[in-house]
Each structure stands twice: as C-alpha cells, then as structure tokens.
Design brief:
Elements (H helix, E strand, L loop, with lengths): L1 E8 L2 E10 L2 E10 L4 E3 L11 E5 L2 E5 L4 E3 L2 E3 L3 E6 L4 E7 L3 E3 L2 E5 L2 E5 L2 E3 L14 E5 L4 E4 L11 E5 L2 E5 L12 E5 L5 E3 L11 E6 L2 E6 L5 E6 L4 E6 L16
Length: 257
Amino acid sequence: MQHVMFIAHEDMVYCFGYTNENGYDKSNISKRFNGIKWENLAPMIYYHSEAAVASIQGEIFVFGGLSQVRGNGVYDANVISKYNPTNNTWANAGNINSFRTKAAAVGVGDVAYLCGGYEQVNGGQRNNTTGFAKVEVFDSTNITWKVGNNMVEGRASCAAVHFDGKIFVFGGFGSNNTLLTSGEFMNIADGVWTMLTNNIPFQLGEVSACCVGHHVAMYGSSKPGHVVLYNFKKEEWKTLVEEGQNLFNGRGCLMAK
C-alpha cells in the first residue's frame, strides 16, 4: 500500500510519502523527476500521507495528512514539514490550527491557502466521508495562521490553482463521497468565494491541475484517459481524450512547462 503526494516545482515533479507493507512502515520517501530519471532525496522527518502540498518562495511545504493511525484513531494530522530543494533538507514548520486530511493547498507569494479536506479530531475515529469548506491561510515568513472565508461547498481531494488574483478549486468529493462536478473561486483581495457558472463536464474524483496560459488543465482519478481544460477568460470547458488501449488512470500529477 502506497500513499504519496505530488507537486510540480521549478520544472521538476516531486513525490513525497511513505510505503506500508504488512502493517510496517518501510520507508519515508522523497523523490523528484526531471523528465528523464528519478532521484532519491532526503527522507521526510515526519510521516505524511493524504496531505496537501504547496510551493512557497522556493521551498515545498507539506500540510497535515495522516501522520499516525493507531487502531481507529487518527493522530497528528496537523503537522507541517518544509523541504529545501537547494540543500536537500527537511525541517519542522509548526502546526496547522486544524487537523485535516486530503485538503488542497496553493502557494501565492509567501503565503499558502489550505482549502477543504476531511476534518479530523486528534485521537478520534477517522473521518473519510464528509468534506468541509474551511479555508486557512499560512504565512511562511512569520509562521502564522489566520482563518479565511469558507468555500461555498465542502470538498476533499479537490484541485486548487492560482490565476489572476484568484484561487480556483475544482471537483473532489463532497458529503458521503459524492463526486463533485462543481468549481468555485475566491478573489484574494476580498476573500469572497463564488461558484463557477458552468460545471465540469464529468466527474473527476481525486483531481490534479495546472495552469497553462489562460487555461487550467485537470486530470481526475475517476475518468481514465481524459483531461479537461477550463478557459478562465471565456469560462468554457473542453475535453481531451487519450487515444490507444493503455490509457493513463488512477492518481496523477499534471505539470506545465
């Protein structure tokens, strides 16, 4: 069983997580891919899976996720780890105010916006069915948090991107693991969230996204071989379908170069 998080950072894809075999943690992996080969990096200090990852000011932050699961209890789902790609080192970067898994994070300048996910109670039974709408803002310079305005719709495993002074979130899972086709955006200037007029053409499930010009490209785990493009300017959707028999499927990471 493998739990990993992906992020595109400075023309490379980074992969963080851990493997668990027969109930034992075998490794605490960090890797990166330059388009040709994978490179092993320094292992994380803490275990993270189902976490949110953001690139902020040249460093990579991993927010929350499953750190310890003992029996039916979830513990320490508010830990933050910071990776420095220049010197290949990890450091503790404090804690989130809330405990959450499968949230989405996006970096803007020296701050990160942490959106949605499944809210957990430290030591409580794992919640994996009810997405919540809470947004928190992390200042990486002062290592402080403030509460943002809630999203319109609670969602987990959604995609989040920054474009033209706005934070956009797409898809994911709603209450009782409902597959969402909705998207919404927040104006950073006033913190107000607004639903998109047009829904995503199909259910994406767990979503990865990246900005390409005036478009955002999305790939979802529930639709093998499909990528959908959203035009920010025209508010229009376009579906691209991979040809052939060996369609890409499952979780993945989209990267623009």
